[in-house]
Amino acid sequence: MAQLDATIVNVSLPDLVATLHAPFSHIQWVVSGYLLALALTLPLNGWLVSRLGGRAVYLWCFGAFTLTSGLCALAWSAPSLIVFRLLQGMAGGLLAPMAQMTVARVAGRQMPRVASAMTVPVLLAPLLGPVLAGAILSVASWRWIFLLNVPVGLAAFALAVLFLPDDQHDERPRPFDLTGLGFLAPSLVSFLFGMDHIARLYGQATLGASLVLFLLYIRSARRKGDDALIDLRLLRAPAFSVSAIIMFLTNGVSFAGQMLLPVWLIHACGVSPERTGLFMAPLGLGMMCVYPLIGRLSERFDARNLTGCGALLSLAGTVILAALAYNGLHVVLLALALLLRGGGGGAVGIPAMSAGYASIARADIPMATTALNIMQRIGGPTLITACATFLGWRLAGIGPSHVASEAYAETFGLLALFHGALLLATRFIKPSEKKRQFGSN
User: Fold this and answer.
1) Would you place residue 232 in the very low, low, confident or very high pLDDT band (cuts 50, 70, 90)?
2) Which terminus of the chain has fewer Cβ atoms in its 10 Å neighbourhood, N or C?
3) 234-434 adopts what CATH topology?
């Protein structure tokens, strides 16, 4: 539901500009504010679960997300819609980690198989979102885009009430780390804001402030130990630290590639927006082909080798994109490159995440879920901004228009370097992780 909502809202932005009589610079906060709210509430995950239990937090978030979706549909102006989207993001920020935590608890050593099955419906959302948005906007207003969440949310809430086990008695209440929240939440928000405006002086100053706040949080968390908002002692487990780095890079290269591809196809290759969507279809197809197989592959192959193979395939696909950007578009090679990127990326995330969970105690899963999701969420905007800034710098320095191909090729080359870092990170997963995860010994 959250993925579908994000893709639908992106498509409806031009309609929001016209109907709410607001400039795009204001309307874009319907998306940006939502992302900032997601980052703001993530650090609360571990504390809320310890106080209320995973089931209660999940139900409250699902109910709040459904309610705020209805409020978005009733918005009467751009400011009201932005406020309701902020509230929706605060509720939605905990939905993904709560679902992930619940699966990790009940799946045990079958985590890769269960997670791969759960991911298939999520992958359909980005593919169906633009199509569904176009169908809705052709016959009704943008308000029905948000109203679509209400019946789905109510049905999901009822299913959660019926089937999720009550786990409150399993939790050890933690004191609320108000100092840690005061350092970490503004640090995350200012980091995302600063990365989006890194070319300007105030963006660089914001990034510097986020670094100072993060260092202050580290100092506070080390002093408080397991009473901290996020227990930094989890990072002492090498497998968990490697998993967090891999999640950061996997999300980053995925979103950065999805940002670069349409820009290159439309502006450098002259492809229409409609055909661009079709040309990018093999990316989602590659993911959908691999994700259902991850469970079986994880049982047959070591996590280190599986993630390494996936990272190598996605690196190869990105190198092909760099060559195409330099030499010219070839549709067959483009489809091959995107299949490699989609399938290879799909083979990295779930095994790496499972290896991280396998290295920690069951009681630490809520805290680990928060840490992994924070790393995952900031990976996307970080590498997107890095690639976009590099591309803008190279395009600003070119003369004749035909030289623009070199700028895109070099930017895909930078993305390939990030893929190389991801491949290197997978080599630090211990070969024995698979045995500990799936009980093969």
Assistant:
1) confident
2) C
3) Growth Hormone; Chain: A; (1.20.1250)
